[in-house]
## 1
Amino acid sequence: MKWQFGGTWLAGSVAMGTVAVLLTAGRGDRPFRALSGLSGLMLFALLALVAVLFVALFAVGLRTEDVTWLPNDTRAAILWTAAVGGGGLIGWGFAAAVTFDAGFDLATQLILGYLGGGLPFTLIAAMFAKPVRTNAIAAGLTAIALLAGATLMDRPLQSCIRYLLLLFGPALGGQ
């Protein structure tokens, strides 16, 4: 089980730390650059990083049969990958919004991106792991992280929506 969590954390941290670098390079007076403001090469690199993250998670997911409550087949590995990858991206996005809203400087954000970027993915993976006690601990730690993040933000829901609009720019009615 340790290698599963370590592999998940490593994949999430390397990929999402690098995504953070791409989104904050040349950001100007904004917290990060909108996807529409990225060059074609940078957008391709960002999408490739996320794709590599999901491939790495799938590789981990294929080897989770003994440590999760999911069955031992390819469909289970796909489900595990989708849940861990999707949930991890949502968690990472929330954590990024917290750091922007709380006014963390860019260097701190990038360090957190590389060191802690895999935490949301790992917490979701732990929710699938045996024994059930591990699931409960992961769910509890997730709740604590969400509450801690929300307390650092002035208006959590509005801030998260604002950052989504900034990220996706004109596609969602942002600037």
## 2
Amino acid sequence: MKTIQVTETELATLKAVLYAQIQQMKREKANGANVDDLLEQYQQAFEALNFAK
């Protein structure tokens, strides 16, 4: 695993895009798609970004 440095703007962009993907996966899951694994990975990534400095 590699550590990277991002600006506050880049971090906000990453979180916004990831949040949008999470919402899309939730909609697809509600329509019967099997996206549980991907949704879990997106949610874990989003949580990890909450701890970024």
